[in-house]
Design brief:
alpha+beta, Alpha-Beta Plaits, 2 domains, two-stranded antiparallel ribbon, two-stranded antiparallel sheet, 6 strands
Length: 159
């Protein structure tokens, strides 16, 4: 159910889950545990952590990518970021998604996202129809390097 405040703010127009920092507890638990202290924001070397309307951290890939350095994790005293919750799994369950806005799908050759991807999860195949962009989800870390590199913002990072 949406509160009146959310309705008036226009939250209905964008109900996608927030992207929390790596190693964040699942959302309902994260919001309950995070104290909104803000310690993780300056700890982030990449500068990709910003506050949401409640003062809790969210990831914004507009100016950088996540290197998974763990600095945000180390300064989290509340425990809303926790290695124990991930026990050897990836630091978050998000991957890149390439939308139909990709200029390669329109016949324009662009390889910016693939050049930025250190995991080499984005590949290009030349076909009779043009260039096809392929994403290897198993190799994608969801770091956001491709998002930042894309001149058309045709890439989303989501679960």
């Amino acid at each position: 159910m949406v509160s009146r405040r959310e309705l008036l703010r226009g939250v209905l127009s964008d109900r996608r889950p927030r992207l929390r920092p790596p190693w964040a507890l699942p959302e309902p638990r994260f919001s309950a545990v995070c104290t909104a202290c803000g310690d993780c924001l300056p700890a982030c070397r990449a500068g990709i952590l910003v506050s949401d309307e409640e003062g809790r951290p969210v990831v914004d890939f507009a100016d950088g990518e996540c290197s998974f350095c763990g600095d945000c994790l180390r300064v989290c005293k509340a425990g809303s970021l926790s290695l124990r919750a991930f026990a050897g799994a990836d630091p978050w369950p998000v991957k890149a998604r390439i939308s139909e806005r990709c200029v390669n799908l329109m016949g324009v050759l662009c390889r910016e996202c693939g050049s930025a991807c250190m995991e080499r999860a984005i590949r290009f195949a030349v076909t009779a129809e043009g260039v096809r962009v392929e994403l290897d989800e198993a190799a994608c870390s969801g770091c956001g390097a491709c998002y930042r590199a894309c001149p058309k913002r045709a890439i989303e990072i989501r679960g």
